[in-house]
Write a sequence for this structure.
């Protein structure tokens, strides 16, 4: 079969890869390239590249260990009581303040544990505390006003 220009270019690419990998010397590479461009058939091209791999041989990437100081630090675990405090704080509105006191207790406990252990979730604990205290204070104010109104009218 007659060789096409594309066949010749593929053969030259194989020779370049072989030369780049050190499989051919400069003189031998030049001679083979000359013969590739002079070749008339695919069989002649095959003989010129038969002793070379058909393309660049993949080289394994060097494995370099990353020093421990450059590795990302794992995110601290979130304190469970802080999550509970935030949930109880958010549920104060639909439960009419019933979860306000648990939000405050869980929030204070969580913040103490977070300071001691270095866990995450301080914002969650603080959210539960603030909403819990606001809810508790709101209900205390409402009850006080109701008692005062009851005493004043009765």
């Amino acid at each position: 079969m007659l060789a096409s220009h594309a066949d010749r270019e593929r053969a030259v690419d194989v020779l370049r890869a072989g030369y780049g990998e050190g499989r051919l010397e400069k003189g031998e590479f030049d001679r083979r390239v000359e013969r590739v461009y002079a070749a008339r058939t695919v069989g002649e091209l095959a003989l010129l590249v038969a002793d070379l791999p058909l393309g660049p041989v993949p080289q394994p990437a060097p494995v370099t260990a990353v020093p421990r100081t450059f590795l990302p630090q794992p995110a601290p675990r979130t304190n469970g009581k802080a999550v509970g405090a935030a949930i109880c704080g958010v549920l104060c509105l639909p439960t009419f303040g019933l979860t306000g006191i648990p939000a405050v207790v869980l929030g204070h406990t969580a913040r103490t544990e977070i300071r001691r252990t270095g866990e995450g979730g301080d914002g969650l604990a603080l959210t539960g505390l603030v909403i819990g205290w606001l809810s508790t204070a709101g209900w205390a104010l409402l009850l006080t006003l109701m008692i005062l109104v009851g005493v004043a009218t009765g």
Summary: The two ends are 116 Å apart (CA to CA). Residues 122-153 form the longest helix (32 residues). The mean pLDDT is 89. The chain is about 65% helix and 0% strand.
